[in-house]
Specification:
Blueprint lengths: L1 E2 L2 E10 L4 H13 L4 E12 L1 H16 L3 E5 L3 H7 L7 E3 L2 H10 L7
Parallel strand pairs: 2-3, 3-4, 4-5
Antiparallel strand pairs: 1-2
Helix pairs in contact: 1-2
Length: about 110
Amino acid sequence: MAVNNVNMVIAYGECDICSAQLLKDMMADTIGEGEKKLVVDIKNLRYIDSSGLAAMLWARHKIEEQGGRLVVIGLNGNLHRAFIPFGDMLETADSLNDAIDMLGSGAESARF
């Protein structure tokens, strides 16, 4: 899905060792098309474990190799806690509009 020339992956349900590969594959497909702006929306996730976070870190690394950026949106209370240890490694934004602005302007997000 693309919004304002920014591609978006939307995650639902739970992202654990059983489903993290699906998230990684969805991000890899988008990045593999040469995309340089990716938003991962996790507002509909109820749970994420280290394998899901590792998939996002992998995607961030791959997109940065192409000169792009990945921004995560939709952190809620439980997910916010899971992201705290990765605050310096994953950019986050409060909304899709904020993420689009960041990706369009090159501005950096607030980090944990």
